[in-house]
Design a protein that fits this description.
Layout: E1 3-6, E2 13-16, E3 19-22, E4 30-34, E5 37-41, H1 43-47, H2 51-60, E6 68-71, H3 78-90, E7 94-97, H4 101-111, H5 122-133, H6 137-146, H7 151-156, H8 159-172, E8 182-183, E9 189-190, H9 209-212, H10 217-229, H11 234-248, H12 273-288, H13 298-311, H14 315-327, H15 334-337, H16 352-368, E10 376-377, E11 380-381, H17 388-405, H18 413-421, H19 432-444, H20 450-457, H21 467-474, H22 481-517, H23 519-529, H24 534-568, H25 574-579, H26 603-614
Parallel strand pairs: 3-5, 4-6
Antiparallel strand pairs: 1-7, 2-3, 4-5, 8-9, 10-11
Helix pairs in contact: 3-4, 4-5, 6-8, 8-10, 10-12, 13-14, 14-16, 17-19, 21-22, 24-26
Amino acid sequence: MASMKLGSKSELFCLDANSWFCTTGLPSDVVIEIGEMSFHLHKFPLLSRSRVLEDLIGEHCNNDAKKCVLQLDDIPGGAKTFLYVAKFCYGVKIELSALNVVSLRCAAEYLGMKEDYGEGNLITQTENFLDEIFTSWRDSLKALETCEEVLPYAEELHIVSRCINSLAMKACADPSLFSWPTQTSKGTAFWNGINASAKPQPVGKDWWYDDASFLRLPMYKRLIMAVHSNGMKPEKLAGALMYYAGRHLPLLGRQSSLENGKHCEPGPSISNPVDVYQRNLLEEVVELLPDQKGVIPSNFLLRLLRTAMIMEVSPSCRESLEKQIGAQLDQSALEDILIPNIGYTVENLYDIDCVQRILDYFFLQYHDNPASNQIVNEGQITESSNSLTPTTMVANLIDNYLAEVAPDVNLKMTKFQSLAGAVPDYARALDDGIYRAIDIYLKAHPWLTDSEREQLCRLMNCQKLSLEASTHAAQNERLPLRVIVQVLFFEQLRLRTSIAGWFFVSDNLENSRDLSGNLALTRNEVQTEGRGTEDENIIQVDEMKDRVSELEKECLSMKEEIDKLVKTKGSTWNVLFRRFRFNKASKPSIPISKESPTSSTPLINRKEKYSDEIGC
């Protein structure tokens, strides 16, 4: 911590009970009373440094009176600070630091200790030291904390704003460039390389979070606003606020839970001053949170919302949190949105109405965004849209949430329908999730009528059930008969469509093979149609004749190869197939008799049969 020494004389003051005496050898002629403390001093050292004391002494002290008594109860810093002022007026050694310079600066201003009453007066000395204080992060922070003691005077002298601007500049800049501490390998402070025995470690972006979290809320709020004005990124601002809330809101780290099916206990009474302070603190933190989507983790926002419910914050604060959560609901997890109801008189275990509002806020942003309309095309899913991913994630999240709250016997069907129906049909790629939730609800509410069961089953689309879900639904006795018939009908329709698709693919494969075999001929026919002269037609006829002649020669050559094969007996068919480029997959199935050449079945018949099969 920086310090500055003033004065050269040794200590002259001594304390006796509640009185300070100056041991100069001369009797005191003025007594200054501040609260319960009294200072027995001399007129000349005081009036030579302070305009206010000069005026008071001249007004209240007569020459005939041996002692003059003055009241200074409203001096900034009180008796503790005036002791430093008195020592300064007598030239006694004092040491300025970040812990006392603010109160001394305010007291010097209050007493009018300007240069007109002595060169190097207290106002000048404290101002020079404040400029040195503002170069250090830690000293600036300490000075700002002491401003609370003399806040009106510090505000008037702009000391608070100067401290905050100094801290904001350092928080937004690279910490290695200025005189504030970095972390060492042993966890000790490392000041600008002075501690050569410790090796400095890289400073993270959150290096200032812990130091700033000790500030009281009004000062901290002004610091956050200052760093925001200096261009700090929303992610760092959010991290600082999360750290501050975690330190000052004990309920924030307490996970609400439901044990043995019991409701959560009601929140603490807001009549307690501590609870009132924490409630105000939570509302201020929520107001300071950046509103950019994805900057603050959803699980933290939801924990903040749970704490806000317990503390009974204002409706505007709760609405702000719900909107922020709704904007990034796709980043939430199931355990985070299982918000228990607070109190003993509530009907349901979980706060379904809150989740309903959050879900409405989520889909409202897509409704207001024109680009989001691309994800719907006559009720069909457009998988190429980037907006489909968050909506599908939210749909799965809500389906899982419905499955968790469905066993609650007090959950009314209207609430279940309202929450499930808030998810549009296009958001669900498959309806397995909503089917599971409906099945659990039907199992937990066996007293529902058939009409209510059918009404509940309208929430799912039987055409969007997977094979596994359809198989389960077809055997589910809890479902109405009409729904089971629909499931079976769509499964049969899906099966027929698949079989028709197989035949279609098979026909296309055969047609492609025929097309590849006659490709050369087809090209020639197309070329012939495009020509209108008699000479071109004659050329085409000649080409066709040449092609037929070539085919006859190939057929004759094939017959000769077959004859050779019959004579050699041991020859394989591979030579023949390699010559004419037959693949094993297209090899004709020709039955080869196990009889010897002298068998009654003539080989020439098999040869002619094969020749007929290949078209020669």
